[in-house]
Backbone:
């Protein structure tokens, strides 16, 4: 059976697809702009109290784990509500999802502007884990090729690589980049990684900011060291640096291409406070060329390829965005999350967050019964602050902080678990001081 016969039986003809695609872009333009939520207080991006007021987060708590699963600020809630209403009342106006070609492109363009990259190099995903899964499942590797990862990465990287190893015998090796996180050193991290690289290494699977310890890797230095190794290699043998970037994205003030990595996988539902269930993968053109597609996209080039019986030819961001229908109201509200951050200013948000993290680390370091796990140096830390408290398991300490002090912190979901705080644009220096007092009282 030819592709076009199948198509006709399926009811989606080439002409209707192309007509839908043609409609998609104008549809995006015709949609009413997201209306501000009626109850949202006036937004003054220069006033931190006003920024905080855009969130429905409870007032009686200090939200130091808000970075893990985003609460939506008012403009994002309004955009989601508006799209949801359109989808609930008259889904056909979105051509049953074909409008995603235009509205998804709007989300990619907003992200591209935010990270300083080309939208064609951005594939939309639903989470960091989805991006990690797509990259590690799809990399073109030969039996015996090696992936070097670390003992500090999150479950998603570990499991994606375990699955890959099971499927085709790729060798995965783990290296410890530091022994005591608080005493981690950039030169040691780089030299331990380089020492683990062999002639068969094709991939470094890394995490920008370790959610286990708060250590931030010196990614640019690592990238420069690997570039020197790659200089003597043929293109297909070059080492690709693949980065789980979720706890650095929107909390570090750097354009993504300037990091020097090849793949950057993140969610937008953590430090960006974007719609839950959204994320992306960015890759360089050379890196995308080394990735097979795992999940069929619903892009124009992929459909045209199907209808014409040809391999799809198109932008990697189109071809690698997993297809199928999504929770579109969330995906399409991404530009409002980016605009919210840009209105406040990426540099201001990062400075505000880092200043609170520094204040918190300095405060915790004065407490004799507390062991700071996250390095104090800004080059090796970001927004996450982890510590251990004498006489308390992490879970018990978090419970006491919540129940006795209305401070919401988290525990690190690793074999060795610590108390974890994430100051952010929804916390304040006064609340940081409250955390230090509360931890001091934990005896
Ligand atoms: C380092 C790291 N990567 C990935 C994830 C998972 O992110 P997502 O929920 O976007 O898949 C987490 C925690 O949730 C994490 O700590």
Residues:
């Amino acid at each position: 059976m030819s592709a076009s016969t199948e198509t006709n039986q399926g009811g989606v003809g080439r002409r209707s697809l192309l007509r839908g695609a043609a409609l998609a872009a104008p549809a995006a333009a015709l949609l009413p702009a997201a209306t501000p939520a009626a109850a949202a207080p006036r937004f003054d991006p220069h006033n931190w109290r006003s920024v905080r007021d855009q969130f429905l987060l409870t007032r009686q708590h200090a939200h130091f784990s808000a970075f893990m699963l985003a609460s939506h600020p008012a403009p994002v809630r309004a955009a989601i509500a508006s799209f949801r209403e359109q989808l609930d009342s008259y889904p056909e106006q979105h051509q049953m999802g074909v409008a995603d070609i235009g509205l998804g492109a709007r989300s990619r363009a907003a992200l591209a502007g935010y990270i300083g990259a080309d939208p064609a190099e951005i594939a939309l995903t639903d989470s960091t884990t989805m991006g990690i899964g797509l990259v590690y499942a799809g990399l073109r590797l030969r039996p015996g090729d090696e992936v070097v990862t670390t003992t500090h990465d999150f479950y998603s990287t570990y499991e994606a690589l375990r699955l890959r190893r099971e499927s085709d015998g790729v060798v995965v090796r783990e290296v410890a980049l530091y022994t005591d996180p608080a005493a981690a050193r950039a030169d040691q991290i780089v030299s331990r990684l380089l020492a683990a690289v062999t002639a068969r290494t094709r991939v470094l699977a890394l995490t920008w900011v370790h959610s286990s310890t708060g250590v931030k890797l010196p990614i640019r230095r690592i990238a420069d060291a690997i570039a020197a190794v790659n200089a003597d290699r043929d293109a297909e043998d070059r080492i690709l640096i693949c980065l789980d970037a979720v706890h650095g994205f929107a909390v570090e003030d750097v354009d993504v291409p300037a990091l020097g990595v090849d793949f950057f996988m993140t969610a937008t539902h953590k430090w960006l406070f974007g719609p839950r269930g959204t994320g992306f993968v960015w890759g360089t053109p050379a890196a995308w060329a080394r990735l097979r597609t795992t999940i069929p996209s619903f892009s124009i080039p992929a459909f045209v390829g199907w209808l014409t019986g040809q391999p799809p030819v198109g932008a990697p961001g189109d071809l690698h965005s997993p297809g199928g229908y999504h929770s579109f109201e969330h995906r399409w509200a991404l530009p409002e999350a980016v605009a919210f951050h840009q209105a406040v200013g990426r540099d201001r948000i990062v400075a505000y967050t880092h200043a609170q993290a520094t204040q918190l680390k300095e405060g915790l370091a004065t407490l004799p019964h507390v062991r700071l796990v996250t390095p104090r140096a800004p080059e090796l830390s970001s927004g996450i602050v982890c510590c251990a408290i004498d006489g308390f398991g992490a879970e018990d300490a978090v419970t006491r902080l919540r129940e006795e002090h209305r401070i919401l912190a988290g525990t690190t979901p690793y074999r060795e678990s610590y108390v974890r705080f994430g100051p952010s644009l929804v916390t304040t220096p006064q609340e940081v001081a409250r955390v230090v007092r509360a931890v001091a009282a934990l005896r």
